[in-house]
């Protein structure tokens, strides 16, 4: 063994294991005196994801790692902070939004004036009974149409092409206007989904349903039960994802709906 050299003993443990084991490391006294040893050791142990207990001993001299060189203490603080995150309780920005969902879509590129002109023509030329002008389900609005924070957590934003209307599993969903069912079944992030063609290119879409009451090709009338609230597909809880489309372009559903009641009770 070199002169002025000695052994350090460490009690080490890993988060993934309950075992504690000892490592003896031979080092030069010069490293201890200039403060570089503690820094190097802490960096190495941090990279291994190991925790350090007790003190290091060199001959008759004890070195408390908590009072080691300032650089080492700062590095240990950063490492401890990084390793002590409680993943069972996510940060506020990463928590999921309740009773929300829907597939991730791209923002529409719409000419508002042209769109509004088309909607006015449809409203004046269509059978009033076919227009989707009543609420398919009454409940608290958890998400409006447009950009929103990802309901599954994180700091990212996504375009939401409809409205998320809160509900209990099994609540009735009704047709807001007459038309023909053009889709009924499982559709990716929408889960169990229905689409109704109301004529003149106007379509309504209903997602995350627990059960469908109609089939493709069926004719529906306003107020008819078409399915039930659920949480199928890309969803964080029971709700109705409701969309209004003109052809393949989404529209804010509020454009054709009356204001919802101030107080919304559950049936």
Would you write up a description of this structure?
The protein is 17% helix and 33% strand. The chain is α+β, with helices and mostly antiparallel strands. The chain is globular. Helix 2 (36-48) runs parallel beside helix 3. The chain has two domains: 5-83, no CATH class; 93-256, Glucose Permease (Domain IIA) (Distorted Sandwich). It has four helices and 18 strands. The chain has helices at 29-33, 36-48, 70-83, 112-125, and strands at 5-14, 20-28, 50-53, 56-58, 61-63, 141-143, 146-149, 157-160, 163-166, 172-174, 179-186, 192-197, 202-209, 211-212, 219-220, 225-228, 239-246, 249-251. The relative contact order is 0.14. The strands form five sheets. Strands 6, 9, 11, 12, 13, 15, 17 and 18 form an eight-stranded antiparallel sheet that branches. A three-stranded antiparallel sheet has the order 2-1-3. A hairpin with a 7-residue loop joins strand 7 and strand 8.
């Amino acid at each position: 063994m070199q002169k002025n050299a000695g052994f350090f003993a460490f009690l080490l443990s890993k988060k993934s294991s309950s075992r504690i084991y000892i490592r003896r490391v031979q080092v030069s006294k010069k490293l201890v005196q200039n403060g570089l040893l503690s820094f190097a050791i802490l960096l190495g142990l941090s990279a291994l994801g190991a925790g350090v207990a007790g003190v290091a001993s060199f001959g008759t001299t004890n070195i408390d790692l908590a009072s080691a060189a300032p650089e080492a203490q700062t590095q240990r603080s950063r490492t401890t902070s990084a390793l002590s995150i409680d993943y069972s309780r996510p940060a506020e920005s990463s928590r999921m939004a309740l009773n929300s969902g829907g597939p991730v879509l791209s923002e529409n590129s719409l000419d508002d004036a042209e769109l509004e002109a088309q909607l006015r023509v449809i409203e004046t030329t269509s059978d009033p009974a076919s227009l989707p002008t009543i609420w398919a389900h009454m409940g608290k609005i958890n998400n409006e149409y447009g950009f929103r924070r990802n309901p599954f957590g994180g700091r990212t934003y996504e375009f939401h092409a409809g409205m998320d209307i809160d509900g209990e599993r099994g609540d009735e969903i009704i047709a807001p206007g007459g038309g023909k069912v053009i889709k009924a079944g499982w559709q990716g992030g929408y889960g169990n989904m229905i689409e109704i063609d109301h004529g003149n290119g106007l379509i309504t879409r209903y997602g995350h349903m627990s059960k469908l009451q109609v089939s493709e090709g069926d004719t529906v009338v306003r107020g008819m039960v078409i399915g039930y609230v659920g949480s199928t597909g890309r969803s964080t809880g029971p709700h109705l994802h409701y969309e209004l489309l003109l052809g393949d372009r989404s529209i804010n559903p509020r454009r054709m709906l009356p204001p919802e009641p101030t107080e919304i009770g559950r049936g």
